[in-house]
Amino acid sequence: MLCPEAKLVDEFLTGSFVGEVKALLNNTVLTTTVKAMTDGLIYKISKDDFLNFLSKNPGLLVSFSENKYII
Q1: Cβ within 8 Å of residue 69, ≥6 positions away
Q2: For residue range 6-21, what is the model confidence (pLDDT) as tens digits?
Q3: pTM, entire model
Q4: Fewer Cβ within 10 Å of end Cβ, the chain: N or C?
């Protein structure tokens, strides 16, 4: 159940990427909360590893930085 001030923005399918790349790049506070409604598996990537990956894949950096989340 969502808290009263929460707003459901979207539902994600298996394999979705959820994250705030702009917040990572700009060292700002994260503003998104994700809540699982069913059992699932989450993979966490360290900030340094993710930024290293993006530096080697500039096309993804552009795509990710223009979106709050990618489905």
Answers
A1: 10, 12, 16, 17, 18, 19, 20, 32
A2: 777 777 777 777 777 7
A3: 0.57
A4: N
